[in-house]
Amino acid sequence: MLSRLALSRRAFLATGTSAAALTLLHPYSARAQAGQVHLRLMETTDLHVHVYPYDYYGDREVDTVGLARTAAHVQAIRAEATNSLLLDNGDFLQGNPMGDYIAYERGMKEGDAHPVITAMNTLNFDASTLGNHEFNYGLDFLMKSLAGADFPVVSANVVKEMGGSPTADTTLVQPYVILDREVTDGAGETHPIRVGIIGFVPPQIMNWDRQHLEGNVQTRDIVEAAEAYVPQMREEGADIVIALSHSGIGAQEHDEGMENASVPLARVGGVDGLMTGHSHLVFPSPDYEGFAGTDISAGTIEGKPAVMGGFWGSHLGVIDLMLERDGSSWRVVSTESTTRPIYERGEDRSVTPTVESVDTVLESVAEEHEATLAYVRRAVGQTEAPLYSYFALVADDPSVQIVSNAQRWYIEQMLAGTEHEGLPILSAAAPFKAGGRGGPDYYTDVPAGDIAIKNVADLYLYPNTVRAVRVTGAQVKDWLERSAGMFNQIEPGATDATLLNPDFPSYNFDVIDGVTYRIDLSQPPRFDNDGNVVNADANRIVDLEFEGAPIDPAQEFIVATNNYRAGGGGNFPGATPETTVFEAPDTNRDVIVRYIVDQGTISPAADANWTFAPMENTTVLFDTGPNAAQYVADVKGVEIEETSDMIDGFQRFRISL
């Protein structure tokens, strides 16, 4: 342990977690000789206020998140290595209901402690950088939160006043810090070392949080700032320089203002290693197989050791450095990059924890945890209509409608003032809880009245983030054709034919709000279940209109969706990385919560913007949850009746087309 942490380390080890007692020395520590030092750099990233192993939306304990779990790995590393530093790579202040509770309910006054900062203090972090989500609640909230940190927080490219060059800027927080420490070599001798820590955040914060930042701060390009500051850090005596890059691993070549700049950042002279994040992935791992400039077997980016420790505390990233005394300074002679997960997932998707929570971390924020539970269980708004998904696959649906409404509301704000402002905004959303393999109880069912934050989990199951794509009217039609694979082809005049394709997942049944259309079930599907064209001349989507007129195939639209769809998930025409014009820093769940808070009372009744095309003397059957019967009269656009049949717990209904 570096000398500043020696006493707190002993206190920490006294917590009794068994992992530390069972660990063995890393080979670097075992091999280090006189004048050689094994230094271990630990990274957390994208914690998003996840201290407890708890899903506040689902209101249940989970084994896949939580700094309290990651802390067990920290403890083990500190036992394995004589010398270590613990660093955070940003996005710690926002991202789950505990963060929203502090920001919107309790508030931050001068002298208040933010719970995630308290937990980080408990773990004796050495330094952190700012992530893009640190700005979501405004600068006043941010600075009051940072005031409670017992560790320096750095960021080199967020600027209050621009100078002639980055080094002449007045930055929001210090651009870097040089930590003066003592390390112990393989012979037991102590030596001074100066570790430089510099941080960076995507310049896109000026778009993502324009309302908070415009007129208050500006941003510089990540690589530009690094090229200016790193030489200065070296001149000030930094023996090694570690970049806390809250920026993903993206393109190899540098573009001015790029969001995911970690690869060109690694090429900056004087940078010895990178902690990365922002992308909620793991490096080194197959996630980055084939990325230019990366070597996942060596754990390097452009030859520099690098790590990305997942998100929400899922992994601890570790960079091992073997340092050798070179006169009065140090040089890196070998490196290793690894990550330690807090859980393992089996082939059957089951989760097995690899560590247990560290009690001192849990205890440090126990009061705020309990307050957050009360917060998520309390109403944050009201709905004038019930939110249910029993009929989401056969008619326009209120549970999908609220998601679409929230996405459009959010994207309208995000694209204001951009080159895309003024284009019509559509919104694509799919039902997630719609029976199927989930069983007859696997449906959303929130009654009219109060909505609690935890109800949002019923509306949106996955931690997707919002994205927007720019597409043509022709692509909108093909998007809907792909979605219409949900249904079997129905012969005109058929009696009680099976409506739904059982091999088509409900999360691929996108409804696009902002246009009106009908689905002609007499036509074969144009796409198969995987999105491949199988009937090029088929046209299930008929009467497709925008603002009451047939849609212009050449007209351009913005479609609000999620990162899965915009990233190519489901193979939908028009939904690709190439058409993506906005990648939000916010999850769809968070956006829904914000929308409900903003509106106060929502009116999500379905507007029947899509229906089936009429087919004379034709009936079809579908199965849904038995509680659906109470809502039959509210369903618009289709004639539905309950049958007397129950199939494996599902209630069977008949639709007259």
From TrEMBL:
BP terms from Gene Ontology: nucleotide catabolic process
Every Calcineurin-like phosphoesterase domain range: 40-280
Keyword set, alphabetical order: Hydrolase, Metal-binding, Multifunctional enzyme, Nucleotide-binding, Signal
Location within or outside the cell: Cell envelope
Catalysis performed (reactions): a nucleoside 2',3'-cyclic phosphate + H2O = a nucleoside 3'-phosphate + H(+); a ribonucleoside 3'-phosphate + H2O = a ribonucleoside + phosphate
Highest taxon, organism lineage: Bacteria
GO-annotated cellular components: outer membrane-bounded periplasmic space
Protein name: 2',3'-cyclic-nucleotide 2'-phosphodiesterase / 3'-nucleotidase
Organism this protein belongs to: Roseivivax halotolerans
